[in-house]
Amino acid sequence: MLSPIDTNFSFDNRVINNDPNNPWNIVPTYGKVLDDGTIDSNPYIIQLPNENTNMFISYQSALFAMYKFLTETLERIPEVIYYYANVDKTREEIKKLISDGQWDADVFSEMREDLLKKLNIQNYKTDQKLLKEIQEKQEADQKLLKEMQEKNETDQKLLKELQEKHENDQKLLKEIREILLNKTMI
Prior knowledge:
By secondary structure, the chain is mainly alpha-helical. 58% of the residues lie in helices and 7% in strands. The chain has 5 helices and 2 strands, in the order αββαααα. It has helices at residues 23-26, 59-76, 87-99, 109-118, 124-185, and strands at residues 29-33, 39-46. It has a two-stranded antiparallel ribbon. A hairpin with a 5-residue loop joins β1 and β2. The relative contact order is 0.05.
């Protein structure tokens, strides 16, 4: 993968090709700056490659290169990485993420839950469930209220009809009394 494609090359004779791992293509080159400010495309000075230019040329140097890479990399990685975060700013940022809908409680859920507890922020999932239950209850109450208002309107219409009927009955009763009173006077 990192070794030259063409393994038939020489450190003594320059080979120009498009192999990015060819030692001759890896070494530093220096070009001549022309009077008009452009750089001549033909290198003026070329550092000669050697077996350390591309350490993946041979199996032994590749093994050594990987050993060096791994040991140097591991030496640079500390066992514990410490971070400092202002509690108030962290709390504000998390609340902002929650309100913007960017706080995905399903990813690293235990760690997020622990962080919410430590920052004394109400449980987002519980709050969301509670909010949803409240909204559903409000919707059910609104529906019930609308049904009650419609029933009340119907009852009001019936009451009005009954009152009108009662008034008509009262008028009829009055007329009957008057007729009876007139008959008894005759």
